[in-house]
Amino acid sequence: MSAYSNTTHVLNGTKPSHCSSPGNLSAEKIGKTFAYCLLLTVSLAGNSFIGILVYKTKTMRKTINFMIVNMAMSDLVFPIFALPLKLAELYSDSWLIRGVPGEALCKLVYFLQDISTAVSVQSMVFITVDRFGAVVFPLRSPLITSKLCLIFIPATWIVASAVFTPYFFALKLVENRGGLTCALRWKEAFGDSSSEVHFMLAVSAVFLYIPFVVMLILYCIIIIKLRTEKLPGEQSLKAEKQHTKRQRSALKMAVAIVLGFAICWIPLSVFNILYLFVWNTSTGLPCSIMHYHFIASFTARANSAVNPCICFTFSGNYRRGLKSLFNCSGGLKNIRKSHTELYSIKSKDRLVPKTANNYAARGQKSNYFVMISTV
Question: Are residues 181 and 244 in the same domain?
């Protein structure tokens, strides 16, 4: 998020010229361009596939998947606006568009970037709360019902939009070294009594630090619950294996989500704190710190690509849906419809195939049906 990395507005165009020789500078630009393009591709493809799979698969239209789609759509907005801007900054020291369109784009780009990440973080918290309720209180009704989900999803966008509304007043195009720069002019917009540092710290606390602590605590409780959980009655070997498999899968998912969020955002958070409160920036920053800033910013932006990767890695439903999407090219539904048979269990050792029409014609009812696809 640019609010959490608002030092970007200050650092633009301040990289010491001696940090790279002309030859190394060209290689550095090529490397960064490749990295941003790779991140853009993975983020666009991964988050788009998640939305498509949930839309096309009725069995996946559940509360938790709706939250995942909300997170994916917010992660989809981020690369569309953030990464092209970073690519433009690599090859130009000035804002490329002037006039009213340039001023509007300056405000809109950073506004949408931060909305995107704020919505993504809120969605992750709701997903964590949903899983917490399912594991810790399995016999109770879900903490986030379908009706609440319809309220929470638009609420994440409304809250994020309200929080970052000041951008429309504080972000302006200003002349800088013969070119234009999209800069944050907080005191000009809100007076000397207001500080962008306080705003950055408040936003970072609300949308980064507090959510991380909440998710960490809830997932720790989930892990403890799964480790101490005992199946009622006598456990068969099969039931014990299934329980162990489910336990390990839940543990891996919990660790992946928390670690992914932490790895992506902690480096940039550390940089921002040091930049604002420790380092003397009046004389410029060393090259090593500037390189660290790029790495920290890149890992934070990579969170939009990490989230769909976690979904496809740990969810069998998403993997199977993705495989079907590529293998069947949209013809999966028709193939299944024409090649599916209903099997009625007539005896313990014998399966008798019947079609749905035969059951309707004979007026017979069967208590057990097995859907078997010949695809």
Answer: yes
CB 264 within 8 A of CB 306: yes
pTM: 0.77
Residue 2 lies in a domain: no
What's the number of CA atoms in the CB half-sphere (13 Å) around residue 84?
A: 10
Shared domain check, 349 and 254: no
Number of domains composing the chain: 2
**Residues 131/222, Cβ–Cβ less than 8 Å:** yes
pLDDT digit string, tens, across residues 262-291 = 889 889 888 888 888 888 766 677 888 888
CA 143 to chain centre: 22
Same domain for 369 and 282: no
Residue 278 lies in domain = 7-328
Q: For 14-18, 94-98, 161-165, 269-273, which range has the lowest pLDDT when averaged over its residues?
A: 14-18
Residue 1 to residue 291: CA distance in whole angstroms: 18
> Does one domain contain both 150 and 228?
yes
Residue at 93: amino acid letter: D
d(CA 138, CA 289): 48
- Helix ranges, 137-277 (H): 146-163, 167-170, 186-190, 196-204, 210-228, 237-277
